[in-house]
Specification:
four-stranded antiparallel beta sheet; single chain; 163 residues
Amino acid sequence: GEVNLSCGTHIHLGYTPDKVFKDNIRAVLDTYAYIERKVFDPIVPISRRKNKYCRQTTSYLNEKYQKVSSRYCKFDSLNECKCLHFEFRQLEGTLDGELLLNWITLHSTIMSDLISHSNDDDYLESLFYKNIFDLLFYYDFDSTMISYFIDRVIKFKSKSIQY
């Protein structure tokens, strides 16, 4: 395989309607949009933060689907079972299996938490005060994964981490 600066990694996560209700999607997206800027941006290259293929998430919803620039969520029909589908494109193109596994683990853990608390406004609001370090320790990831992402913060010398 081969990747270059124009490549991006796509991660797809799906949740059945019993896990999230349409009325709560906006709260999930608002919280995720914040986390995207304050948690995920510091661990991706600057080129992935603001470009035409990977724009910031918003919580604008319309009837058929919610298009968030090139990242989106929508309701899909899978075997006649409706599910909420999220696509994440913030990570750079990579063939690094460790990075992929860590990125998927981080996203799926955070999204599952957001979905499970989608009707708890106080809880979702509490996440607005967390940065990458807070969440790495909050979700009790193992030390290898924590070190991996701290190394990425240092590598990309982010100015967007708020303490």
